[in-house]
# Entry
Amino acid sequence: MKYLMLLYADSPMPEPGTPEARKLFDEWAEARQAMTDAGVLIECAPLQPAAASTTVRIRGGETLLTDGPAAEIKEVFGGLTLIECDGLDEALKWAGRLPTASAGKVEVRPFYQVPS
Amino acid sequence: MQDACALALTKWPAEGVPSSPRGWLVGVARHKALDLLRREARRAPLEAAAARDCPGPQDDASGEEELGDDELALIFMCCHPALDPEARIALTLCCVCGLATAEIAAAFVVPEPTMAQRLVRAKRKIRQAGIRLKSPGREDLPRRLAAVLRVVYLVFTQGHMAPAGPDLVRGTLCEQAIRLARALATLMPDEPEATGLLALLLLTDARREARTSDAGELVLLGDQDRDRWHAAKITEGTALLARALKAGRPGPYQLHAAIAACHAEPVTDWREVAALYGELARYEPTAVTEANRAVAVAMAEDPAAGLAILDSLGSRLIRWPQFHIARAELLRRTGQTGEAIAAFRRALDLPLPHPEQAFLEQRISELRNTRDG
# Structure
């Protein structure tokens, strides 16, 4: 089963080059390696801040663009991880190993299974 | 799915239940439920087979072998921490105990369609989220076991002290919980908390008959006819508790059981009870634990000491009728009649079973007579 992990950090990404940034990078490298070794990792990536988002809607044939994210939330939606594994328990274990779980929250969202 | 499960499972409660927990769990009804849940759980994924080749972070095949009983897996699935806590209890009653939706709805004091919805939602979550029918591995067992024991404990408390309605005690729920606890203790003999929970339920349930009079009125512990206590349950509960404690790994259920064992003695040692609640606070540091300790301190020392602890809890328990009842009793014993009546009134403003309401009304009229007479 595929699970999308939505990463909500407590604080924005640290400035590149700072000790905090290096520490975070190392923690992610370790988590990513573990997921790769187990063969569950499909994609894992940080995102630009929500301020860089553009939201698109088509209404009555008109394209409406809005600067910013679709929904304003308090948390920083800062990245995603996509894995494929056998069931929720395994997915939850991996979610717990992501650095964001200890400095924010990880929402584990199962993929909708398109009926074959 | 909902109706199929309910239909498949309504059979045995009426027919009575086999005496051995294994026999009980391995009944026909369970197999049907198991098949249904298994089908639900397997419907989605493209496959497990592929994923199984790459071991997960803490895959421990040997641990799973040891605990891999289907019935255990079913209980763990229904009590999965990813499910809503109330839904876990309902799902366990439906799929493991075989209660009909109407019975579960009555237990929660909600309309049947509401309960049906809750069960449908829980089963949908199991299917959509990919919750698998399997027992947790050794590493996860303590955390997962805690969730399972909690569900069994809550099933019991729902029966032992009905939240509202005509009856004080609903025996069916108590018996279901004891059967579940017995099954868990049998399947996991090395888990002292599982044994401790069974001991707790037996020791508490032993007093069930004595807690209400023939007319259905509430009888307080001190006034109970001890001949109506169930001696065999007390003997078994005490022996189980001793066995659990011998493992040297205490936990909340063993402590609750030790407290229940104190209450099953001819004379309650309140000093011991107060000390045990103090110990319990290390595992369950809640206002409820503190309130219970306050009552024990009041009994062991004097009402004023207990009252001081209760009042230090501030407004944290104002929605819990037992808090007001305890305060009222202690105020009464310290001669603060007016305040005692007010506290009983506050308890009556909250939902309570009818026998307990009648008991409180009687207490209030007694206090009025003392004050006015």
In short: The two ends of chain B are 64 Å apart (CA to CA). The longest helix of chain B spans residues 141-160.
